[in-house]
Amino acid sequence: MSDEFEGAKTSRRSFLTGAAAAGAAMGAATSAQAAGDPLITEVQDWAAGLGDGVDASPYGLPIEFEKDVVRRNVEWLTADTISSINFTPIHALDGTITPQGCAFERHHSGAIELRKEDYRLMINGLVDTPLVFTYADLERFPRSQKTFFLECAANTGMEWAGAQLNGAQYTHGMIHNMEYIGVSLRTLLEEAGLGAAGDIRDKWVYVEGADASSNGRSIPLEKALDDCMIAFKANGEALRKEHGYPVRLVVPGWEGNMWVKWLRRIEVMDRPVESREETSKYTDTLENGTSRKWTWVMDAKSIVTSPSPQKPIAHGKGPLVVTGLAWSGRGAITAVDVSLDGGVSWQEARLAEPGKPMALSRFYLDIDWQGEEMFIQSRAMDETGYVQPTKAQLREVRGLNSIYHNNCIQTWHVNANGEANNVEVS
Amino acid sequence: MSKFPELALAAALATLTATPLLAEKLGIGRPATPDEIAAWDLDVFPDGSNLPAGQGDVWTGEEVFAEYCAACHGDFAEGVDNWPKLAGGADTLADEDPLKTVGSYWPYLSTTFDYVRRSMPFGNAQSMTDDDVYAIVAYILYSNDLVDDDFVLSKETFADVVLPNADGFIVDDRAETELPGFTDRCMADCKPAAVEITTNVVFPGDPNSGTDATPISQAVMGTAPAAVPEAATEPETEAAVEPVAEPPAKPMILDAALVEKGAKVFKKCKACHKVGEGARNGTGPVLNGIWGRTAGSYEGFKYSNVMADAGGGGLTWDAETLAGYLENPRKYLKGNRMSFAGLRKEGDIAAILEYLKSVSQ
Fold first, then answer.
1. CATH placement of domain A301-423
2. How far is B314 from chain A (nearest CA, A)?
3. What letter does residue A413 receive in the DSSP assignment?
4. What's chain B's average pLDDT?
5. Which residues in chain A are contacts of B205 at CB distance < 8 A?
């Protein structure tokens, strides 16, 4: 095997050189047409030699040519990478499902390693029988499968203060969208029995993780019984450790911090705990100095992922696919509009498929770009009739000191070269 | 009527769940024991209910804080680097850049107690006694000028403390202040036609590239200097005559299992000390090559005078000196800045020494 591989390596280098020359200018493309594209007229190594055997990668990673499509963090954003965040490369992905390996991470005390055998989930508080489940126990309950987005409340938070970071990954990459497999939280609560809770309308559950941050959040019992899930698989396979292996909570449409990872305890109670993450963090300070709390639902939002600063137009004039993502914590996306002139006029984009409640939607707009300057924006509408606002509209209500829950319309300025930059416009 | 308006939409749910649920049980799981519940259910509520027994005064708090917290949060809770500031910021919440601390922002003291007790110190959570936690919280209050220096925090005095921003929060009001206003789907002539840029991007390039301001789009498109493709003329025979790698000058013999154990113990150190390729000084110096290094000599790190002097006096890190230092850093080198209580277990010290040796290869 190694003989063929060495041979392939050498000629791959010449191929790269040739491809670079061919792609460098329009002139090269013309001469290639005259003589015929060597990629077609000459027998290539991959058409003659052999590739990897089936034992080369028992669990495969993306091919090396895609090595830039990775999560990235911003070093100076936080004191330490252990309590920090990174960003999904949404500028380079398409469709709606986020591969787990590049889905953003946010930890408060690092991504821990917790074996299934060591996993315990406790339900206590206002229940008829406080219970402990093992991982194996959870797999015996009736299962469900649903796709949801998870957005960190701080996504786009940097942008309150103006156009800060240059790329959809950095401005909007604290989001992922996965197909979860698990058990409904309702099922587990009913197993413990909610007779002791009485009227459920003014009750809460407190959910807490097993890591050192003991991230805990208070959630209205109504929401817990409505659509929350105890998930142990995502996109068909076990959760990654950075997403809470072996078990995380899924709180559809609500801010990511509530989706407690390494979930170890659920307590039914008659009041909220007022934990660190629901008072000192994830709250929005308004202009007069008072702060909003319990802003759980993530409002409708969208972003053009291409073209964008990390994904400029590289092909010159002519047909151009404008694409992006839209989502709403209040239900399904019903439409997405795109503006090329900074919000003066709008046209409706095409949804790749009908919106699903609290899951990402992919939109496309196919245009003929003739090298004109563009201010590209997108605007999401959801089934409640909500229309994604501008930053100015949000600032009018919330002032300038807000950080979290920024769902404003984003503008990319595209110049005649097809380069895109993050801007704010009049 | 539900107090959570966004849930009121689920009308069917409301009727279904207004009464206790009587669903059929599957008999999976087992009852939790009272001891198990006590071990995990540490919730403390704003009114102080569920607090453990214990107490702590400001002066004890200052000592404990110096030992466990000051490396990141500063001696006076003022914060080091990007680590959270715990004190200051009074009356700044309506200012342009509010300083949000326990004193200026946090509404409830129970939150501070709960967080310190369950999650601090960073990297060694739940290692402090409840008395220590009471003392630290008392000191944080003192740092914020909220109590006098003779204050003693306990289950009994807890309710006497009301944080300044206790009434500073409102419940999500978007249903009234935002949702009704965000419904206009204008399609044409939505604003004056001459759209202008009002703000350009602050960090045009790779946010991790420091001063390199090459816009990301240029870097991506190759208008910035791109990597030169590897020469195609490289002789094909090169691979066949690959030289045999020379052995390292002084090979260290390592116990792999012990290194692995040491890596786990090192989690206690990781918040401050970095190792491996690309490691940079943090709250503590980089530990690559610590084995055999002169104390206080890592480039670019600002050591305490005591540590720098010890190095000047000939202190070198080896099995004996590191073991002594790590067992009790304060006693070993009085006045040095490392706020770490020390490794109590002899096995942990042996393991971490092996690990530090491994990162010094």
1. 2.60.40.650
2. 32
3. E
4. 82
5. 166
Which of B93, B195, B209, B242 is best to mutate for the A interface (most A CBs within 10 A)? Answer: B195
Q: Do you find a cis peptide bond into B107, omega within 30 degrees of 0?
A: no
Of B317 and A156, more confident: A156
- For chain B, the structural domain boundaries read 50-175, 256-358
- Interface probe for B, chosen from A123, A166, A213 (most Cβ of B below 10 Å), is A166
Helix (H) / strand (E) element for A380: namely strand A374-382
3-state DSSP assignment of residue A206:
strand
Q: What would the pLDDT profile of B213-248 be if each residue is shown by its tens digit? A: 677 877 776 554 433 333 333 333 333 333 344 444
A425 to chain B nearest CA, in Å?
Answer: 4
Q: Can you identify the CATH homologous superfamily of domain B256-358? A: Cytochrome c-like domain (1.10.760.10)
Q: Where are the domains of chain A?
A: 2-60, 75-292, 301-423
Q: What is the DSSP string of A285-354?
A: E-TTS-EEE---BPPPEEEEEESBTTB---S-SEEEEEEEEEE-TTS-EEEEEEESBSSSS-EEPEESS-
B224 token code pair: 């910035």
Minimum Cα–Cα distance from B185: chain A residue? A387
Average pLDDT value for residue range B127-140: 96
pLDDT at position B23 is 65
DSSP-assigned beta bridge partners for residue A151: A175
Of B58, B47, B43, residue with least CA distance to B108: B47
The residue-averaged pLDDT of B273-285 equals 81
Residues B294-309, mean pLDDT to the nearest whole number: 83
Three-state secondary structure call for residue A281? coil
Terminal CA-CA length for chain A: 61
Which CATH number is B50-175 given?
1.10.760.10
Question: Under CATH, which architecture does the A75-292 domain have?
Answer: Alpha-Beta Complex (3.90)
The Cα A81–Cα A134 span in angstroms is: 31
